[in-house]
Amino acid sequence: MVEQLYYCWTKRGPTGRSGFQIVAASPGLRDRTAPLTQAALHYCRYPARPDSDPSASPVSFGWAHELGLRLVFNRVAADAVQGRPGGFCAHVIVGRPEELPTSMIVRWYASPLWWTRDPGGWGDPELSLLPAFRPDDMPMSQPAPVDELFSSA
Fold first, then answer.
1. Which residue of 18, 22, 55, 149 has the smallest Cβ count within 10 Å?
2. Neighbours of 136 (CB within 10 A)
């Protein structure tokens, strides 16, 4: 099972304040002070240009290794936050490298797996609970020629 979290700007989130914060997380990432959660938060940034249209901004997708685990992230620009550009949403998935092989991660690019927008429903002062999940159960994009390159990773 792998863990996941959602991060975005919200009017009033689990911290009781407005701002960028974790708005939903699976059990293994609910403690904001835990080293694993702190490692995941490192990938919850999106350096969007202030004058750019969110729909024209690129997706920031990738993975890294920290604490012996693989952290996979998908970050997208979102609408302006309180009239200021630079809004974004991040979805981070964390698991052991054998649970998240590179061949699988590559096929997650552009997959419907990723949470990409704040639906406007956040604002509950409680941290929304996300499920941990089995990576094999998640949707993937269509096979790509790069699959062969990463089949042994």
1. 55
2. 8
Taken as a whole, the chain contains a residue count of: 153
pTM of the predicted structure, to 2 decimals: 0.81
Q: Are strands 69-77 and 88-95 parallel, antiparallel or unpaired?
A: antiparallel
Digitized pLDDT (tens) for each residue of the chain, 153 residues in all: 999 999 988 877 777 888 888 988 999 999 999 999 999 999 998 876 666 666 667 788 999 999 999 999 998 887 666 566 777 889 999 999 999 999 889 888 888 888 876 555 444 555 687 878 888 777 666 555 445 545 554
* Cβ atoms of residues 91 and 64 within 8 Å: no
Compute how many other C-beta atoms are within 10 angstroms of the C-beta atom of residue 87.
20
